[in-house]
Structure formats: structure tokens, C-alpha cells
Amino acid sequence: MDKDWIPFHPNPSQPTFIPPAGAVDAHCHVFGPAAQFPYAPERKYTPCDASKDQLWALRDHLKFSRNVIVQATCHGADNSALVDALAHANDLARGIATVRGDVTDEELFRLHEAGVRGVRFNFVKRLVDALPFDELTAIAQRIAKLNWHIVIYFEASDLAEYFDFFSSLPTTVVVDHMGRPDLNKDINGAEFDLFLKLLDYNPNYWSKVTCPERISISGPDGYDDFVPFGRKVVETFPDRVLWGTDWPHPNMKSHMPDDGKLVNMIPRIAVTPALQHKLLVDNPMRLYWPEQVNAGVK
Ligand SMILES: O=C(O)/C=C(\C=C(/O)C(=O)O)C(=O)O
């Protein structure tokens, strides 16, 4: 792993917040293990290994029930580690893959059968060289036929440039980490307002209210500055929000969060049991296990 890499917290605290039954960690990753699933040559970082079994152990420790595993950029478009985790999840995990424009229909079908339900378009320059819009549009049109959705990751400062392209995407679109707002800026300022407009103008847009540890300037004593931004998104779009740990927390430089304390953030941004149930159960189940929702599975 990179010499400045901070591994995930070895002993996360037991959260005081108990999630509702069936809660979903809707944003997490698996890394390797590298001996079995080598990291991509084009990667921009080399992480510690972080296995599916360690992810399941965290899920159980935090009293969650399900995971949505997002392909990490260190694996590029080789989704093997993701597919392996899904194959060993007993249907308690779904996946978001990374694909290129030359992905075959057979590969998309194989990924769907494994439990993948979407692709990630990453625009964070320190992580990837983003694909050209026309290639992304072609991928979007193909995955729309699978009823998959798109997860997008971008910096708030880039949203104005991407707004029209984002608004053209034909599927449900889930924004990672609220589009990484700059918490030095006013919650009522133009930058966060543009993010809120993205969801307001586009009813197919959802947002994860995640990653206080990445976004907060006030820091890990409580990530207090994150709370009003998270609350605003949850209360404005209660049926279109998701939550996740972001374990194993790639590329953290200032500190490594205690996952138990991240869970304790939930009642501060979703302040009623009804909002917590939408955030942690209703919304992710509707998006990732619709067949079970329709069958009345609890
Ligand atoms: O885990 C996150 O969502 C955030 C980061 C990394 C990735 O998403 C990734 O490498 O796939 C980041 O900000 O470095």
C-alpha cells in the first residue's frame, strides 16, 4: 500500500444509534485482497487490502443487514473482487460496477446476474481520467435497458460544468457524498444551491448523505459542520437519499474515522424514526432489492 495510506479503523466503537431492522450500508468497497484480485495498473492509489469478510464483520458489528458495494477506482474496470464479494453475500449485497465503452452485452449480463445494479461515473480528477461524455452517454443508454442506475462522483466546484450533461442522463442517478460540498461556503450559497437544484429539477436524482469525514472542516469531534447540509438534503428529498459508511475509507489523509461514530451521525441528519427508516431501509430496498419489496419481503 501507499506509504502514506491510513488503514481502516481496526476497532470501531459500538454505535449508540441502533439502525432499524433491515438497514442498508449503501456505500462501501472491497479492496483485493491483492494476491487474489490485483489492483489495476492505471490506479491512482494503492490501498491496504480490505476483504469481503471484514466488510461483513463491520456490517454485523454496526447492526446493519445489507451492503451496496461500489467498485473502487483502485480496481479500475476489473470488477472481479466486487463480483466475488457479491457471490459470497447470500443476496445481502448488491454492486455498482465500473465499465468502459467497449464492455460487452455478455459482461453486462454476467454482472447483472452477480448482483450488480448500476455503474459509477467518476469525475474526481485525483482518482480517474474521466471518460468522454459521448462514451458515458452510450454506456448510460445501454445500462438503462437493464434498469440499472448510475452513481456519479464529482467535486462541487465542477458541478456547473457538468450540470447539463448530468441532467441528460436517462436513468436514476445517485450522487455520491452530496457532491462534496465546500463547508466553508454558506449552506444557502450558490454552490450548494446548484446541487439542490440538480435534485429539484431532476426527479430521477438521488443523493447519498455520506462522508462527513471527507467533507467536514470542523473535524472528527462531531463533524458538526456537516450536519446542517446533511439534514437539508434528507428533509428536502426524504425519498431519494441513501446512507453508507464508505468503509474502508480510501484516501483519508487527516484521520481515519471510527465507523461506530459515523453511524451515530445518522440521527443528527435524519432526526425522526420515519426519516431514518426511509434513509436506511425503504429507499435502498426500493433501489437495490425491488423484487423483494414487490414480493413483500421484510
Ligand atoms: O470512497 C469514496 O467514495 C471516495 C473516494 C474513493 C473512491 O470512491 C474510489 O477510489 O473508488 C475518494 O474520495 O478518494
Automatic annotation (TrEMBL):
Taxonomy, superkingdom: Bacteria
Domain Amidohydrolase-related as annotated: residue spans: 24-288
Keywords assigned: Hydrolase
Molecular function as annotated in GO: hydrolase activity
Keyword Hydrolase: yes
Gene3D superfamilies xrefs: Metal-dependent hydrolases (3.20.20.140)
One Pfam short name: Amidohydro_2
PANTHER family: BARREL METAL-DEPENDENT HYDROLASE, PUTATIVE (AFU_ORTHOLOGUE AFUA_1G16240)-RELATED
Identification of the protein by name: 2-pyrone-4,6-dicarboxylic acid hydrolase
Source organism (scientific name): Paraglaciecola polaris LMG 21857
Organism phylogeny: Bacteria, Pseudomonadati, Pseudomonadota, Gammaproteobacteria, Alteromonadales
